[in-house]
Amino acid sequence: MHLLEIENLVVEFETAAGPFRAVDGVSLHVDEGEVLAIVGESGSGKSVSMLAVMGLLPWTAKVTADTMRFAGRDLLSLSAGQRRKIIGKDIAMIFQEPVASLNPCFTVGFQIEEVLRVHMGLDGKARRARAIELLNDVGIPDPEQRLGAFPHQMSGGQCQRVMIAIAIACNPKLLIADEPTTALDVTIQKQILDLLMNLQAETGMGMIMITHNMGVVAETADRVVVQYKGRKMEEADVLSLFEAPRHNYTKALLAALPDRATGDRLPTISSIFNEDIDGGAPA
C-alpha cells in the first residue's frame, strides 16, 4: 500500500472566461521513506496538486479524483474536521514563501507551540521544551532566545528553518516541500536541502519535493514526476530520467540546463519543445 496515492486528480477554478483546469488528470504515488520530486516550470500545476491534497484550495476550486488516499484513508470522503486532524500532523507542508507564511503578529515560538497544542495536546512547559528542541534541530542558534522573536526579526533562511520546524513538529509521515529553497542564496539553499534530507533519512518519512530546479531533483529524489500545463508528462526513477528521458518536454527541460546546453546562448524550452503535449513518449 502506498503512503499517498492519487489517480486522475482534476482541479478547476471558475474565471470570468469560464472554468480553468489547473490540474488535468494527474496520477502519482509516494511510499514511506521515498522522495518524490514533482518538477515543471511555473504554472504547471505542481503546487495546486499538493494544495488539493492538503485541502487548502479556496472553496471556489472544484477538486475531483478517482483516488486520493493517504495511509489507506480516502481523503475525499473525510469531513473537514477529520481532515484537520491529519493535516499538520500526519501530512505537513513547507510553503514557498516562509516570511509570508508565518504570521507577523505572533512570535515564532507561539507559532511552533500552536501546532503542538492542537495536534499533540502538550501542556505549556512541554510545548516550550519541544519548540526549543525543534529550533535546535533545524539549526537556529540560541533557540531559547529566538522563541520570542517575530518573523521580521529573522532572515529569510531562518524563517525557512522555522517553517521546517513547524512542519516536522508532530513527526509527520509525509512532508511536502514546495520550492523550499526559493529566494535563498546558494549557501543557504545547500544548508536547507541538507537539513531536509537528513531529517527524511532519520525519520523515514515520505517526502514530496516540488521544484523547477533539476539540480535539486538530481540531489534529492528517488523518483520524478514531470508536469506541464496541469498534466503529467513523464514519471521515472531519477537516474532514468536524466540518462534517457522519454517525453519531448522532459528532453526540453534537460536541454535548457546550462551544463547540457551547447553554444553561447541557452536554448528556451519553447524553441525545442513541440507544445503538442500528447507528443513524445506516454507518461
Task: Give an overview of the whole structure.
The chain is α/β, with parallel strands linked by helices. The protein has one domain: Rossmann fold (3-Layer(aba) Sandwich), CATH 3.40.50.300. Helix content is 38%, strand content 24%. It has helices spanning 46-54, 80-86, 98-101, 108-120, 124-137, 143-146, 156-168, 186-203, 214-220, 238-243, 248-255, 269-272, and strands at 4-15, 18-30, 35-39, 62-64, 67-70, 73-74, 91-94, 174-178, 206-211, 223-228, 231-237. Helix 4 (108-120) crosses helix 5, helix 5 (124-137) crosses helix 7 and helix 7 runs parallel beside helix 8 (186-203). The protein is globular, with a radius of gyration of 19 Å. The two termini are 22 Å apart. The relative contact order is 0.16. It is a peripheral membrane protein. Pfam families: ABC_tran. Its main location: membrane. One of its GO terms (molecular function) is ATP binding.
What are the salient characteristics of this protein?
283 residues; alpha/beta; Rossmann fold; six-stranded mixed sheet; five-stranded antiparallel sheet; 12 helices; 11 strands; 38% helix; globular
